[in-house]
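Technical note accompanying the year-one report. For the benefit of new consortium partners, we illustrate the data format agreed upon in the data management plan: each record pairs a sequence with a structure-token string. No post-processing was applied to the example shown here.
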Amino acid sequence: MSIADKARDKTVARPVSKQHLRLWIRLLRAARAIEAELRERLRKEFAVTLPQFDVMAALVRKENGMSMTELSRMLMVSNGNVTGIIDRLTAEKLVLRQAPASDRRSYIVRLTPKGQSQFALIAKAHEGWVDELLAGIDADVAESMIGQLDGLATRVRAGGTR
């Protein structure tokens, strides 16, 4: 296929269903590429995994901590996954796990002062990395995309209707 044929191919109208499928694939590719880069930078710069970062980000919002079940629901992962992450963060003295007096079978987890200060450093770097990775998108375009994606998420949650 010549360059002219390829150019002509791109200008031929595609059915909207094909465009939507292409958009979905591009969204996945972009999200996966960004996530892979962030995972690598977190690992290299702070020796932290993305799931550990996500747990600390959830806990920093809850000064009084939260139960393991609340945490797993918030992160949409199993209790077993959260337990392993909390075990590692506890070993690093970044998270404190306590059994409440009212229910000795459950645990409340919260960031330690060390965890709070460590997370503040990581979060600042994370924000900078995301800003760097999305630097080609100006504020107006970003705001428009946010609105479109929020609308998409709302429609999907409502059953995919338009």
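Partners are asked to follow this layout when depositing records. The mean pLDDT is 90.
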